[in-house]
Amino acid sequence: MKKLIAGNWKMNGSKDESRALIAAIVNELSQDEAILDNAEILVCPPVLYLGDVRHALHGYPSVVFGAQDVSLYDNGAYTGDISAKMLKDAGCSYVILGHSERRQYHGESDADIKVKAEKVLAQDMVPVICVGETESERDAGEQEAVVAKQLKGAIPELKPHENLVIAYEPVWAIGTGKTASPQDAEAMHSFIRSELKSLVSAPNSVRILYGGSMKPENAKDLLGQENIDGGLIGGASLKADAFLSIAKSA
């Protein structure tokens, strides 16, 4: 199974900057296709730029794109919301759900994330469900209990043909420059894998990504761990050379 290297662009970049970034990614991949031997590349731009990314990726089936969130609802009077069907129509393959920034700034609960995951799966897309503890929770030794609760609350019942991705993102490492050691990250990924045995029928088919200041300097050590199946990349995904350097470490 290839490593999944996912770029979360968050709310960054203009139309021109987004076009330039995806063009740079495509250009480098066209010159070094071996990058894709061990890695599947996923980019998640701001929703307004999905069309530009889709156009740029035409002819590159090994590079997919997705969204950073989805509505709880299928349609109706929900001003500003974007439904799973709309994202599917836009060409998305994946949708990030429950990122710590969504939990913190928008009050999203595990129950909300579960509903969103069901909407995503119903449109034959793959949810990327984010879990992770805060620094105070880790200091109190509560990281496993916190993540177990998030997993149980957010993962929907899967049909035989459905799958999902889990992204472990220690909140204290997001955008701070701090990174979990490879050993600590692997310990949590191993724990998540164990928890998945009671939540999904095929736990070994679920890719578990590490998210939390992964960059070219630490990617090889992190991606070399047995249960780390890729990365959810924030800041480093905004520079094509840094993002693809991480992919080369897969």
Sum up the structure in keywords.
250 residues; alpha/beta; TIM Barrel; eight-stranded parallel beta sheet
How is this structure best described in words?
There is one protein chain. The protein has 250 residues and is of the alpha/beta class. The chain has one domain (3-248): Alpha-Beta Barrel (TIM Barrel), CATH 3.20.20. Helices cover 40% and strands 16% of the residues. The protein has ten helices and eight strands. The protein has an eight-stranded parallel beta sheet with strand order 7-6-5-4-3-2-1-8. α1 runs parallel beside α10 (240-248), α5 (110-122) packs across α7 (143-154) and α9 (216-223) packs parallel to α10. It is globular, with a radius of gyration of 17 Å. The protein starts with a strand and ends with a helix. The model has no long low-confidence stretch (mean pLDDT 96).
Brief description of this entry?
The protein has 250 residues and is of the alpha/beta class. It has 10 helices and 8 strands.
Give the arrangement of secondary structure elements.
Blueprint: E1 3-8, H1 15-31, E2 39-44, H2 50-56, E3 63-67, H3 84-89, E4 94-97, H4 100-106, H5 110-122, E5 126-131, H6 135-139, H7 143-154, E6 165-168, H8 182-196, E7 207-210, H9 216-223, E8 230-233, H10 240-248
Parallel strand pairs: 1-2, 1-8, 2-3, 3-4, 4-5, 5-6, 6-7
